[in-house]
Design goal:
The chain has 15 helices and two strands. By secondary structure, it is an all-alpha fold. Among the domains are: 90-182, no CATH class; 185-264, no CATH class. Strand 1 (253-254) and strand 2 form a beta hairpin. It is rod-shaped. The chain starts with a helix and ends in a 6-residue tail after the last strand.
Amino acid sequence: MKGFLGRILFVALACGVLIGGTALTAAAQVALTADDCVKCHAQQPAEIDSNGAAHKTDIDCQACHEGHRPSVANNIPACSMCHEGTSHYEVPECMACHNPHQPLDVALSGEIKAVCETCHTGPGEQMVASTSMHAELACNFCHADTHGNIPDCVACHSPHSETMVQNDCAACHQAHKPLELMYGEDTGSALCASCHDTAYSQLAASKTKHNQVACVTCHIDQHKTVPKCSDCHGEPHAAAMHAKFPNCGDCHSTAHNLNNWPGQ
């Protein structure tokens, strides 16, 4: 009797082990879903949720991580698996700037220029075409710490005058070609006076009609352009006088400090 009961107990135990083993094997074979990732990986899903851009809206975890370690030796994909077609996607070591779980939160470190120009071709071309000290600097010298950061000019440069503020700089200067001055027809003469104080003071003190003319009216085409008097005035005197005195300034001084002739 004892032997019989012992054999029954042995069979029962053996069956339990087999059934349990089968159950464990089946559980191990259940496929993981993207919803399971957060059960172990809290940081990466949180980063994607807060700032994942298209990595949040267009794909899920398994689109990149097709298998799980250790069954997959390396489940960290190359960025080029999805991103291709431009020179920027040929830059090595993508993760030196990009966290794939927050791809648009770009980190800038070291001195970067060539990499920046693979996306920002316009600024690079401008600095080559209009050389200045800015062209000698790494992009992240100015655009430090955070991608897209635009610094104030006055962080490095002293204003031309005490009245100038940061917003005035862009009226004449572009950061990527700062020596190529360009200004609109609505630029106030007081802003010109920040650099050209003598000319502005003479013009402000003048009793002639030029006193009412804005600097950009005459100097609109290009900085330092000196127009001909005849561009506005034609030849108001007799031909013989213009032939004898071809230089208007011989009689009228300078445009900013005209001799006060009648009718001027």
